[in-house]
Records
---
Amino acid sequence: MIQIRSPIIITMILLFSLWMAIPAFATSTVYQLNIDAPIHPVTMRFVEEAIERSEMEKAEALIIQMDTPGGLMESMRGITKAILNADVPVIVYVAPEGARAGSAGVFITLAAHIAAMAPSTNIGAATPVTMGGGGGGGEEEGKEKSEEAKSNEMAMRQKMTNDAVAQAKTIAERRGRNVEWAEAAVREAASITASEALENNVIDYIAESVSELLVMVHGDSVEVKSGTVVLDTEKADVKVIEYTWRDKFLLTIANPNLAYLLMLLGMYGLIFELYNPGAVIPGVIGVIAIILAFFAFQTLPLNWAGLLLIVVAIAMFILEIKVTSMGFLTLGGTASLIIGSIMLFDSPIPALRVSWSVIIPTVIVTVLFFAVALAYGIRAQKNKVTTGHEGLVGEKGIAVSELNPNGRVKIGGEYWKASAASESISEGANIVVTGGDRLMLIVREDT
């Protein structure tokens, strides 16, 4: 028998044994990100980065906990493409209770390797919707234009619907889910509860929590891009991917209400700077606000007609200060601002449009601002001139020398060269200013 008495060798053997035993006790890692907002480019980038991180760190799976009313089709396509080509199993979990996967959320749920919902949630209503429309002018010609516009709109809507149906069916077929319901969700805006979704093979599980879901999916085999993966999630360590300060900032800027206010603030700042050159601060604030607003416009369904109407409204308000229009420019500007604010973002989803609670106070404040500016402008035009010769007309003083016809007078503590308007004025006589010529005042004796 070989006896090992060296403490160094014994320690090394113990450490090696402990190192070999570590894998038996190690737990897998599952990443989780939460989406509780409309789907737009910022959301798409966040999901794509989460998938890349999960792949790089060899995560067991990525859970996307989702509660969304829908969003932009292009952003949804980017997310589904990332999920379908992922090398890590992606689990979409519609939660918490009361959450929904509407519109774009339907496609994302269908694209997941494993789809689950919490109790009291719903999924559906994925019909693509366009806003806007045409309208003609007079009688038969206007009617013909209107019918033509309606026909074009119907054709465009049908084209978008067929495209969305094809994508939904393709994704459902790829994941072995209910193709008929996927088509109905797009064509008929079908919407179902969590239990109905499970019965109709739209989702795979109903779970009350993430931990319960991980136990349910443990041992499932899923097909990722690189092959088949068997999930080991029963005792997985869940790590939530938090939004960075940059992500939070971008999500805040992408809010349509804030983007709308930033745009108006930027316009007001630039207008103030143009009317008061050298103020600097309003100009700097205006430029920054405009840049941030246009960044937000890139992530939102901007309607250029709405933006143009708002610009025209501001131009009308400014012209009202310069041109007397009996208030017609103000009325036109108010109407243009309201219509432009409503049309600014072209989306059927309320979360991607400017709220009425923001539009109404903003319009009122804007109209009052320009109305007050107009009132002060008119009042200033009617006020007596207080500078130059015009400002001294009517002022009284005393002749400090004889004016025959020229001499000197004292007005309000100041000495001026003066010329008698007609006859000479004796020294010490009271005078009144009647006009001026360059640095010479024209005066007459005050009788």
---
Amino acid sequence: MDRPEELPDFTIRTLGPPRYPSPMMLSREEGDSLADFVPDDRRILFYTDLERLRPFLEAGSPLPSLEVAGPRERIFFRPGDVRAAIVTSGGLCPGINDVVRSLVLTLRWQYGVDEILGIRYGLRGFVAEDAPPVRLTPDDVKTIHHEGGSFLGSSRGAPPIEEIVRFLDRQAISCLFLVGGDGTQRAVEAISRAAAEAGLEVAVVGIPKTIDNDILYVDRTFGFITAVSLARLAVDAAHAEALGAYNGVGLVRLMGRDSGFIAAQAALASGEANFVLIPENPFDLDGPNGFLAHLHRRLASRHHAVVVVAEGAGQEYLAEEQAVRGTDASGNKRLGDIGRYLRGRIEAYFAEREIPVTVKYIDPGYMIRSAPANASDAIYCQQLGQNAVHAAMAGKTGVMIGRHNGRQVHIPIHLVTKGRKRLDPEHPLWRAVLQSTGQPLRMVNE
């Protein structure tokens, strides 16, 4: 349990005190039935569990809390002087275009910012001569939220940070918005610090995008709910295929490099999965308590089974393939294909025992990544974009916008980049998966 002295530093860096009144016509008083500005000292508790708060209460220490996001009454930048830039990085994800549209519309219609640049094809667009930035207007983005993919394009990897800072200086950028996953958030931290060291007044704000939902300190990342909804359809299809054959096995590989959130929640949403394999819960393949033995028992009793596996699960069986594949442009290890490997092992296991089995393998990854956001994600994306602009105009920098305990907050980027959020096998979510599937607590031989 956290001790008061272990409290993370939730202080948000700013470029300086606010200097100008906001152009937004909002109320300064609560209870008047008008939309309000958010006071800069408005905070929410980081923990909602009394047991997590008790050590702080007993020690008389400040309770851990996060700064609430939203429009401030006074802002750092004069809106007419602002030039903004927007970049989307990493893999595709439902909702990217919703966020870009929200950023552009909020900058233009709420703050009167005319100069908005879209950086093409990820961070490389800061230096690429073959893909210069484009000027963005409300007309340019008015319908992009109905489309999947990234209107601006995306990529992995980044040019040297000093080259990005030179671009910001040369283009007189005041507010920079980076939409992406953990690698992009590391860029937020590096760029914000490098800009400060160069003496530039640039507000650098991150918006968490990753299907895997593995960003620290946020309830969920945008695109995750859409991904779960579409992944559920793949699990349902695997169930139909499994039922359609004697000893049918429907095998679905879903996203999740280090975290099994999509696999777990898609399995729960479908209710048809019999096994869910995730990176956080190691499993043996062979032996009396291994996965293949349990699958054997399932087929012997019911003659069909549905297996959901996260892409990062079981990578210890694919070390040789990983060594050949190397790393991607962001420095991430390229994973071995656990779905294809499992299909081969399942077929070989039952062939050795002369038991007929039909395996149908489904990998919906790219279909899910490129889909438009559903209603829940679209709402979330619009609010993320709005609050990112409010934070930047108030001079917040080195900050990520995210939802924690149901409220949108400012999160210091140095905390976000310390690791990745993972599914705790002791969390009620995983317990619910075990109850739904009926699989053992652990499939590991003693």
---
Amino acid sequence: MARSRRSSSNIIYGLLTVALAVLLVWLWWSSGQTKRRTAKPKAVPPIAAKPLPPAAPAVIIPAVPPPALPANRPVVPPASVPPGNSWPRPVQNLFEAQLALVDQGISSGSLDGVTGSQTRAALAAFQRLEHLPPTGELDALTKEKLQLAESPYTTYTITSDDLARLQPIASTWLGKSQQTALDYENILELVAEKSFAHPNFLRRLNPGVNWTNMIAGTTVQVPNASYPEPDSKAAFVVIHLTAKTLEAFDTDTNLLAHFPCSIARRVEKRPVGQLHVAVVAPHPNYTFDPDVFPESPEAQELKRKLILPPGPNNPVGVAWIGLDKPGYGIHGTPRPEEVGRTESHGCFRLANWNAEYLLRLVTVGTPVYVVE
């Protein structure tokens, strides 16, 4: 009987031992599952990001009203702006570069889209202004710096007043002196001077236009050219004889204007040194002196002075800036496309539109330095 009780006790102890073992195994398994459910994912090492280029500085456009447009300047109609273009933008070709230079007060001569010594001189002037190497070439950096503020082309509508101005110009000095004005001879000449353009460039730009039979209301495409409104007067002017350029500077020696310039044919007629502006005259008449034109048979035959009326075809164009050396001055010319390529009797010739702009920059007393 005692053996039977011991046997039963052993069985109970065995069962309890098994149950305890099962319980421990279950607790261990349950704990492992909880850890796996709550375990955080392993940290992934960050990928090194490439440094971003520095952001371009914000362009702040000052909220100021635009300067008043000069009289008779063609206005850009909204329809003339090509779709998809935004302004300002860098120039894309040589013509656009010439046009953008005008907006800086820098002239390459008559706008024509053709490279040459005057265009290279104008580009070099701009490059010096921007502290770039003055190569005179339209390189990538210069293109980026030269910005077009608006469409390079606009339209000009011929008016009845334009047509009424046209008149033939006499071929003799006496004949010119007897005219009421020395105005434009034809409409192509008028439109070319108003848009600072070479007549041949306008012909290429308007292949379907008959320039010899123009009527009022005809619309033509022209360069959208105008000089900036001057915000200061020139402190001094420098004429470079070798380069055949004229430049105006303010009191801080900032460039205000750069123009091609014709100089005297004879070296002894070139007044090197310091001069001063003595008189400023818009739309001047011209006193013909036969002694100044010894090569002219008519002048030697006349043997008397003549007064020629004002006008763009006057020998001194639309502006006269007299200097304090008798007989010398800076003035316009009837043939702006020849400026810098032909020589004068002694004065300094500019395109009419450049002479008009210089007239707004100088005053009586402004120093003019003529250097080699």
